[in-house]
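Blinded run. Sample ID left blank on purpose so nobody reads anything into the name before looking at the predicted structure. Input follows.
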Amino acid sequence: MPSAPTDEIYERYLRKAIAEVNELADEIGSAASGTRVPVLGSGHPLADVFLLKYRPQRSEVQEGVAFFGRSGQAILKSLQRLHVDPMAVYGTNCLKFADQPDQEASPFLTRELHIVQAKLIIIMGPEALAFLNSLRYPLADPIEDRMGELQRFTPSVEALYVPDIDVSLDEQPAKTRFWNAFKALGPWWAELPPY
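Blinded prediction complete.
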């Protein structure tokens, strides 16, 4: 039996990931019960880079999309500065609702991580770090709060811990701390082998 071309295999995985992300979005929407506004992840469903914040901000809740508003614009500028393709990035919040308990949100994030299968998770801030470490993700090592340093998350996924983007945008020293940690993405991206 002849093997399928690499592009065809990738397309199959992509279609599966799109279907799974849409199914997850439907489940998150159902969990809203009409009383809460869900904030869904956005980006490529098979991204190389997975951005993770803890809680959605007001602009994200208004639009229902993670990284909408100031944080998204700041991330986009940072990606451009590092020559990282924004189309290879997926971003989400640990909490899918502004007032969601952690235990309700954990299964949603675990599924997102399984669907996207990113090669690098960028964890933004101490709350997101604690949340990710609490998931008991298969084969995962706990991520330490070592800013700007690549760490092993699983055998096939690395992690980069950076300050919370939402609290880093108001003061220049905080912006500088964020940038100094986040810029480790640039060399990692440059060494990423092509498909």
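Unblinding after everyone has recorded impressions. The longest helix spans residues 6-31.
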